[in-house]
Amino acid sequence: MNTEKQLFAISVYTENNIGLLNRISAIFQRRHINIESINSSPSEIEGISKFTIVVSMTEVNIKKIIGQIEKQVEVIKAYYHDLDEVIYQISGLFKIKSELLFEERQIQNIIKESNARIVTVNKDFFVLEKSGKKEEIVALYNQLSIFGIMQYTRSGLIAVTKEEMKISTLLETYNN
Amino acid sequence: METQTIKNTKKSTKTTERISGSEAIVRCLIEEGVKILYGYPGGAIMPVYDELYKYQDKIHHVLTRHEQGATHSAQGYARISGNVGVAMATSGPGATNLITGIADAQIDSTPMVCITGQVSSHLLGSDAFQETDIVGISTPVTKWNCQVTRASQIPEAIAKAFYIAKSGRPGPVLVDITKDAQFEEFDFLYEKCTKVRSYVPIPKTDIKSVEAAAKLINEAKKPFVVWGQGIILSEAEEALKAVIEKAGIPAAWTILGASAIPTSHPLNVGMVGMHGNYAPNVLTNECDVLIAIGMRFDDRVTGKLDEYATQAKVIHFEIDPSEVDKNVKSDVAVLGDAKASLELILPLINENSHTEWHQNFKDLYAIEYEKVIKGDLYPTKEGLTMGEVLKEINIQSKGEAAIVSDVGQHQMIACRYAEFNQTKSNITSGGLGTMGFGLPAAIGAKMAAPEREVVSISGDGGYQMTIQELGTIFQQKAAVKIVVLNNDFLGMVRQWQQLFFDKRYASTEMVNPNFVAIAEGYYIKARKVTKREDLAEAVAEMMASKEAYFLEVCVEKEGNVFPMVPSGASVSDIRLE
Ligand SMILES: Cc1ncc(C[n+]2csc(CCOP(=O)(O)OP(=O)(O)O)c2C)c(N)n1
């Protein structure tokens, strides 16, 4: 087993209950693990939420963490994956002064080359959106920051696995 | 399609009754078979108390003198009976006072349900009078918790609470109920909870793991069992006895496993851990197969982890999958309920006696006896020892008493020397080490098992942390026997200061009050012993008393508890002096 720290994506399927986020994040907090990103949203199953949590840790410890997460009463199942076992996206938003769009040729090229999308333009600012791997968004940030960025934010990582996660089958066994 | 929608609803055909949320709370408790609950009233829980007044003939509310006392009493109740203990408090300070007991129950896997009142739902989050976020505060120390803001949610929440508290690896649960939900009327219907989707209380036992464990046991030359509270929680005492007797395996216990197998059983080789016995600690590092059953390799048990049983193959019988490989890597993990797993393995193991291996335990016991036990139990020095008090209690109770200890030196002495003939007789705060646990826990234990002799043993320090519960004892006429082993010190801390801080006794000396007068102030018969000649007679008088009785024994001021595995040391480096 790999004893080096590495990035893992954790998927947690849970009942949609108030308080679970607290319980789950407390597990990381107690062990002094910094969460790189966390996303919670409805899953493909009605009434079931899915958390995607990215952390950097060793495989030995992530197994223990998964055990602690699964132990929570309202957690249905937790998995951990190497980032290459999942298909994932991060989204970045950039707010930039409108005048730059017209005055700096270079910016238009950057937008084109990076496959970023213009979300909105008005007379003061425009907003760019770019989805992809973290490195791509960071690269775009580096290119744009030369010209000045008014606001920048990046979402948590969201992922679907390449492998099947048999949550429905599992729920069926619970229901019987 | 990979997944599909599943609905989780069921329809009931039973008829309902229109009642208030607060009445529903009481009715739910009655439905769960609760006969006694411990608590303290206040504004946000008053509607429930009002209902309790109405249902007095069905459910007995014990007014403790502090909410911490309520939780510890509920714990004592649960530990001796195996049933869920129940504690109740008002919002804000009432609720926060429960936290120590909840944390204690969580780490010691004690089934407990706590009900707290909460400010009305429209005030939630507004810093209203006596509002605290008790659900947030208790989250890390509960097995499950929830807040209820509508009366109609009460039955399901309480049913779930009892089910979760009791099933699988037990633990404390908290249900916080807003005052408006207590007043609101709704159509009441109670259905016990028998499962919660997503929650697997007992993991499935893989028969292959049982076979693999049996193979290791059968091939072992020096097998060694360490059992924990899991044996008591799953009522696996007989199953454990059958297994160790058939295979002739010496077996030791963790502090919370004490009393599962009688002290006098020839295969019972004593306690493991920091102040455990010499032989089981040393031989942990010599056995070839270590069979851990219903225990979780706490650091007080293992000492230095990378020098713990590294030579041994480890078999771990465990109900909580997250405990497997958490501290000690196992070669075979048998998941499941301890009793069921032991019953499965029994036919697969061979008869054996391992006489030579046993001799190792006897030899080391002889050393411990000479160096430690003899001096503790049969002292020749002037001061009274804690050990001889325990010995006297053993003699007078014939090993039938339930011993409830507080935390400190006296606790270690009590667990080392108390003789237990029956299970569920050792009630102590293991994982949290909560001073102040003993006295209120003894109240709960006595009320759960009035036919049993319950002896609470405290130090002068811990006793004063919950001394106000003498009031509860008096009011409830709870016939607990209270022993305070008074060394005028926070003894255990003083011992560490002596051994590891150059005898700098910083803030551990206690100037104590007249304990006898205090007990008598609560109308409890009381006596103080300072001389060895009076001890036996005083203990006899205490045990003969039909009512509560307080006995203060002044013991040597600077007595120490040995053996000891210094913190961070390996279990084989256990010190005898
Ligand atoms: C609530 C709490 N505070 C502090 C401690 C730390 N502590 C552990 S043992 C001990 C001393 C206990 O003294 P006493 O109750 O007199 O018992 P003795 O050790 O003398 O038998 C202390 C302060 C604790 N375990 N619990």
Oligomer: heterodimer
Low-confidence runs of chain B: 1-9
Q: State the distance separating the first and last CA atoms of chain A.
A: 36 Å
What does the radius of gyration of chain A come to?
20 Å
Named once each, the bound ligands are: thiamine diphosphate
Q: Please indicate the percent range of residues of chain B in DSSP E strands (runs of 2 or more).
A: 15-25%
The arrangement of helices and strands of chain A along the chain is EHEEHEEHHEEHEEH
**Span between N and C termini of chain B?**
68 Å
Class from secondary-structure proportions of chain A: alpha+beta
Helical stretch count of chain B?
Answer: 23
Shape of chain B: globular
Contiguous helical run count of chain A: 6
Task: Give me the count of strands of chain A.
Answer: 9
Determine the fraction of residues in helical runs of chain B and give it as a percent range. Answer: 25-40%
Q: What percent of residues of chain A adopt helix (DSSP H or I)?
A: 25-40%
Tell me, rounded to a whole number, the average pLDDT of chain A.
92
Number of strands of chain B: 20
